[in-house]
Amino acid sequence: MDSYNTGNPIGLGPRKRHSKNKFLRKLSILFTLLLLSVGGFIAYQYIKPKQQLATVTVTTLGQVPVANMEKSRVDQWNGVTKKVAYLTFEDGPSALTTDILNELAQQQIKATFFFIGSNIDAQPTLVKDAATAGHYIGLHSETHDYETLYKKKQYVKEMLSVQKKINQLTGHSPLLTRPPYGSSPGISKTIANDVASANLRVWDWSIDSMDWYYKDSAKEVAKTVIDRAEDPFEIILLHEQPQTLRALPAIVAGLKKKGYQFSIYDEDFHIPFNFVQQSNL
Ligand SMILES: [Zn+2]
């Protein structure tokens, strides 16, 4: 006899329904547990990287990790290595500064300029022009003289003098110096300590454009820079010279083709890069 059609309307039905409910309840508990564990795992993934990225508070430049001179700073961006080139122009301001600024504006690129004190005195408005255009203005001494800067240890004194001049023109006191002739062998441990105490920094270069050598060939200057650019981080030494100005469009095009972006020196993210390998510079 079919239990459903007997006097017992309950029959097996309710029991079946009962066990079905129990099963559903168990299933929903399992499902909730599963959701909780998946949710927890996802939340952990969000929290975990933050813990790993916790930064160490750096109070002195000496604590900043030393950049390896092999230029191995690699930034990944969407899985692609980010390559950054810093164009650095020495020895201005000069008769060519305006043309260089115009060319950079044309190319929509910012650069870093290292100005000499006596040249600032001669053409102060060019300092303002460069700063207004968004370029970084760095310090390149008063005399540009090896003997005076390194043997007579006038490096810091001269850089601070230039810093003051730039501050009067732009309202900013730059911290970055470019040692005339490079930091090695001129910057001794003593000078390095003086530089650090004065809260100044030093940047040499990773690529010499050889524009001082190829005076008559913009083509060779451009070729030198483009051929030598290999690493994710390149600081390119340039001078305010006619051959350099003429080489500029080719340099920019060639570096872009190699995947470089252009950047200016950033005081908030100083990367020590000096030939004397002093971590406090
Ligand atoms: Zn120079």
Automatic annotation (TrEMBL):
NodB homology domain span: 83-263
BP GO terms, sorted: carbohydrate metabolic process
Keyword Disulfide bond in annotation: no
CDD domains for the chain: CE4_SmPgdA_like (cd10944)
Record field: transmembrane: 27-47
Annotated keywords: Membrane, Transmembrane, Transmembrane helix
Signal peptide, first to last residue: none
GO molecular function terms attached to this record: hydrolase activity, acting on carbon-nitrogen (but not peptide) bonds
InterPro entries tied to this protein: Glyco_hydro/deAcase_b/a-brl (IPR011330), NODB_dom (IPR002509), Polysacc_deacetylase_ArnD (IPR050248)
Keyword Ligase: no
Gene3D superfamilies documented for this protein: Glycoside hydrolase/deacetylase
Protein name in the entry: Polysaccharide deacetylase
Source taxonomy: Bacteria, Bacillati, Bacillota, Bacilli, Bacillales
